Structures are given as C-alpha cells and as structure tokens.
Prior knowledge:
Number of helices: 17
Structural class: alpha+beta
Radius of gyration: 26 Å
Helix content: 40-55%
Distance between the termini: 74 Å
Largest sheet: 6 strands, mixed
Strand content: 15-25%
Order of helices and strands: HHEEEHHEEHHHEHEEHHEEHHHHHHEHE
Low-confidence stretches: 7-12, 154-164
Strand order of the largest sheet: 1-2-6-3-5-4
Mean pLDDT: 91
Oligomer: single chain
Amino acid sequence: MMxxxxxxxxxxxxxxxPAAGQDYTHPKAMGLPAPGFERPDPDRLRLALDNGLVVYxxxxxxxxxxxxxxxxxxxxxxGEPGEAAVLGEALRRGPSSMSGSAFREALSDMAAAYSVAVxxxxxxxxxxxxxxxxxxxxxxxxxxxxxxAFSGSASGGPGRTSQAEGIDWASSIAGAIAAxxxxxxxxHAFGRSATAAQMExxxxxxxxxxxxxxxxxxNVTLAVAGDFDxxxxxxxxxxxxxxxxxxxxxxxxxxxxxxxxVPRRVVTAEAAxxxxxxxxxxxLPVVPREERAALEVMDYILGAYHLDSRLFRESRELRGLTNxxxxxxxxxxxxxxxxxxxxxxxxxxxxxxxxxxxxxxxKIRSSEATGDEIxxxxxxxxxxxxxxxxxxxxxxxxxxxxxxxxxxxxDWSASxxxxxxxxxxxxxxxxxxxxxxxxxxxxSVVGPLEEIRASPMIESEPQLNAWGRVERADAGGR
Length: 478
C-alpha cells in the first residue's frame, strides 16, 4: 500500500510540475524589449507619373506571385443612381478591346484571380497572377481602367466574393447585414436604387460619363507588389500607364449624415436554419481626427478582431453561447459609416446573445476600462495590427496606395503609434459615450423565429420585441 501511495505521489508531482514551473509574472513586469518595428519608407516605394497617377511598387518574394490593385475614389454613392453598378459590371467584363469570352480565357490561361468591388465611396480592382504573367496582367489592368467593356451580355463573371457555392448566404449573416444596411441607409445616397427611368439614362450614356469623370489617373492609385525585380516593375508600370490621359481629379463629395431612428427597431427575417444570426448597430458619423485613436482603443477592448474582448469573453468563454461576438467599426471617408456588433448561435441562445451584447455596450459607456485592458489594446494595435499593415510587400503597397488616395500624404500613418500610445482611460470612456448609443440601435435577426421566441429563458432574457418595434423583412434584407 505504501509503495503504491509513493508511486501515486510521484506521478502527481510529475503531472503538476509543468504548471508549477510556469511564469506568472505580469507582462508589464517582464522587462520585455520594445518590438522595434519600423514600417518601410513610403517614398522609396512611390512612383509618381506625369499624368498624376501614383503607384506603390514593392518586392514580395514569399511566393512566385504578383498582386496588382487599383484603388479609385468613386463608389456607389457618387454620380447618379445605378451608374457605379453598371460601371462595375463593365469592369468585370474586361476591356472593350476584348470580347468577354476572350477576357475570361486570358484570365483562365494565367490562372488569374480577378475581382471588382464597388463600395460606397471607393472602387477596388484586384488581379492576382503568377509572376511569369505579371506584365501581361499589368497591360490588361491598364486596358480595363481606361476603357471597360460597357457593351456585352451580363458577365456573371469575376467579382469579389468569399462565398462558397451552395451556401445560402442570404439566410445567414449576409442576410442580417443586408437587412441592417437597408434600414440604416434608407433614403440615403448609400442605399439608393435606380428607377427604370434612371437605368435607361444610365445605359444611355450615364455610366460612361461616370467613368470619364472619376476614372482619371489623378483619382486612382495603384499597388504593384510581388516576386519581381523592382526596377523592371517600375519601368513596366510606367510604360503601361504613362499614356493614360484624363481630366482633373474631381472635387471630393461630402455625403449627408444619416441618423438611426429612435426608438430602437428590430428587423427580423425567417430562415429555416439551425441557428440565428444577429447584427446590432447604428450609424457612425465621420470621426474627427483627434478622436480616432481613442475610438480604436475602445473598440479593441469591447469587441474588435475576434480576439479576447469583452464581448468574446462574456458570450463565448463564460457562457459558451457562440463561437464569436465581435464589433465592426466601419467609418466612412466623407460620409456616414456604421458601427455594428455581430454574433450568432442556436435558437435558444439568440435572445440571450442580444441581452449580453447590450449589457456590454452599457458597461463600457458607464465605467472606465481597466489599466490592463488599455495596456493590451495599445500593444495589440501598435505592435500587431499596425505592423501587419506593412509586414509584407503586398501589405505595404496596398496600405500606402489606399492612404495616398484618401489623404494625399503619409503623415497620418506615420503618427499612428504615438497617437494610440497617448490614449487615456478617460478618452476611452468618452469615445464609448460619443459613438455607442444603445437607445437607437437597429437589431437585425435572421433565423427560425418561432424557435427563437419559444425557447425557454436561460438568464431571464426578454423576447426580441422588448428591444424595439419589430419589422419583418425577407432573408435578403428587403
């Protein structure tokens, strides 16, 4: 008996020894060296052509690939209703100098990934190809930007999407986002749709006029990055784009504000699924420069980046209700954006997920964050998120091209680490009070509504109608 007891004690000590040897010193007391990250010099990457086009060229030899991206300061909010959408289809068909089938064949021959994303204020066109086809692809991109194929059948062709075939996205988170957006931007330039008469004007020349006005070299920036010789890449880029002529850069458009109605609204859509999807949020006004850093720190603490945030801990770690509950801070450039909180779960958890989310929104507005929370947020934003924007050639070229299009300089990104490090706990709470308004949220829920309603309470959570007036929408958001 004594021998067996001795073996047991020895075994337990071996099992416990790794934990006993762990270092529980707080990171603040570890004396860790500063990461010392320095972003690449943007002046070294920038290529400015005489026609006003600015290009960022960066080597990235991690794989034998090249990524070409064009950023255009024009989106669906610009021009007349329908013009940007029709132009987007023309861009997807390729250049007017090629038939649609020839363009698709060229992409297939290069094993290229081609996408066109028309946003509310900007358009982004991306072409990924093997390095051996880089200059052929560069010529195609130049041709598409100058003269897209307005004529031809609807492409059904390449467009930006991460949606796998066979998945009913309208009956999931995409449907909940669409329902939210349809209410938030109702009657606004960002949510408009063209009438039959307007579409006739668009197809009669409106989309071409939109292209001539906004797709000019001075209103576009390019990112050219990949496995190539930089000197050759700069030479090839100059050759492909230097003859592109266009008018002056159009004056920036300032879009009117939008206000989420008070009291709150609950938008529901029926979907015969095993879980429900939730989007909670409201408009985000254009954020003044001096308030952006505090807003980012507050957002990180609350729910950003699917990491160890308050929403994540309360919804997943402590209760096991969901795999994710995250915040999405989407500021506009010269018009309203959105601030949303998105989660999902089985029908019996949906009402509690809404309740938990609102509890955390109230909490971050009513009390200061902790010193540890702000310490972690600052480190993650500066040494993680910020550094990742310039970690590779593709990252750096894209980040700089986008920033130049919006700011016309790189002063903003250069000062980012210092601005984040200067944020105080008081500023974090002030940002929460300024940019989170629980009393005027839109709550969008897609899922098996009767199961959600009939599920027994877990923590005395209320029915969805307790949060505001209920409106029904189809799963596509209408």
